[in-house]
Amino acid sequence: MSLSRGALIAVSAATVAACGGNQNMFNPHGPAARSIATLGWWLFAVCGAVYVLVLLTALWAVARRWQVSDDAPAKLQTLARSVTGATVITAIILIGFTVASVVAGRGLTSPSGPGAVTVDVIGHQWWWEFQYRDVTPSDFVTSPNELHVPVGVPVRLQASSRDVIHSFWVPNLHGKRDLIPGLSTETWIEADTAGIYRGQCAEFCGVQHARMAFVIVAEPMSAFLEWIAHQRMPAAEPAAGDARRGFDVFQRSTCITCHTIRGTRAGSRIGPELTHVGSRLMIGAGTLPNTRASLVEWVANPHSVKPGVRMPPTPLAAADRDAVVTYLRSLR
C-alpha cells in the first residue's frame, strides 16, 4: 500500500468513525448523484417559490377588506381568469417535473460508458457481502461491508438478498436500489473523486436495520488493482507468539462453522469472510471502528453492541479471546 493511499484511508476512516461519514444527496460525487441532486434542487426551488406565492396570496386575501365592486361581473371574470391561469401554470409545472424526472431516471438506469468492474452485492441480516468475480474461480474475492471501486469508472452492481428485502443506498453516488429475495436487480455507481463514502440499507429489514451500513472506498485504478491483487492472496499463517496461539484457538473453536479464512480449514460462508479482516475500516457492518478494543468487545459478545445479530457470543477464556483478536488483527 502506498503512503498516499494509506494516509487517505487513515484520514477518511477517522472521519467515518467520528461523524458517520458524509452522507448527503446534495453533496454529489458522481454523475448519477449529480443528476438526482440537480432534480432535487429544482424541486425545492420551484415548490418553495410556489409555497411562498400561495402563502402571500392567502395573507393578502385575509387582510383585504370586502368591497362592493367585488361582486361586479367584470371583477368575477378577472378572478375566474386568475384561477384558470394559476391552474394552467400548476399543470405546466407538474408536467415539467414529470418530464424532468423521466429524463433523470433514464440516466440512472445504465452508465454512460462501459463498466470496467462488476460486483455482486448480497444483502444479509444485517451485513453486506461484495463479491468480485473473474473468469477463473481462484480470482474470486469477497469483501464484507467494504466496497472498493476505481475512481472515474462506472461499476455495475448485481444486487440480491439472502433473506428479506434490503435496499442499497449511497446518497453521495446514486439513488437506492432494492434487493429482492429470489431476484437479481442491477444498478451502478461511479465516484468522481477518491475518498470514502458511507452507504446503508434504506429498507426496513429487521431489528438491526439501522446498523446495516457499509463504506465505499474510491481510489485510483492503480491502487484498486493493488488492493484486488492483495485480496486474492490467502491469509498468512502466523509462525509464533500470540497470533499463532490465536490461530490455533480459532481453528478449534466454533468460529470456523460460520467464517472463511482462505488458506486455512475455515471455509464456511454463513458469516462474513475474515481473510483480510485486519485491513478493514469498520466491523459489524459499520457499527464499530476496526480497533483492538472494538474487536475484543465484538468477539466476546456482539449482542452487547448489536442486539439480535446472528453471531452468537464466543465462550472463550480472556487469554484465548485476546489471542484470537491478535490473530484477526494480523490478517491484513
Topology:
Blueprint: H1 3-19, H2 31-63, H3 73-109, E1 117-124, E2 127-132, E3 141-144, E4 146-150, E5 155-161, E6 166-169, E7 177-179, E8 185-189, E9 195-201, E10 213-219, H4 221-231, H5 241-252, E11 282-283, E12 288-289, H6 292-300, H7 318-330
Parallel strand pairs: 1-5, 4-10
Antiparallel strand pairs: 1-2, 2-3, 5-8, 6-7, 6-9, 9-10, 11-12
Helix pairs in contact: 2-3, 5-7, 6-7
What is the fourth-level CATH superfamily of the largest domain? Cupredoxins -  blue copper proteins
In total, the number of domains comes to: 2
Largest sheet, if any?
Answer: 5 strands, mixed
Helix and strand composition category: alpha+beta
Question: What keyword list fits this structure?
Answer:
Immunoglobulin-like, 332 residues, 2 domains, elongated, alpha+beta
Protein described:
The chain is of the alpha+beta class. The chain folds into 2 domains: 1-64 and 110-232, Cupredoxins -  blue copper proteins (Immunoglobulin-like, Sandwich), CATH 2.60.40; 241-330, Immunoglobulin-like (Sandwich). It contains 7 helices and 12 strands. It has helices at 3-19, 31-63, 73-109, 221-231, 241-252, 292-300, 318-330; strands at 117-124, 127-132, 141-144, 146-150, 155-161, 166-169, 177-179, 185-189, 195-201, 213-219, 282-283, 288-289. The protein has a 5-stranded mixed beta sheet with strand order 3-2-1-5-8, with no helix packed on it. The protein has a 5-stranded mixed beta sheet with strand order 4-10-9-6-7. Helix 2 runs antiparallel to helix 3 (73-109) and helix 6 (292-300) crosses helix 7. The radius of gyration is 27 Å and the shape is elongated. The termini are close together.
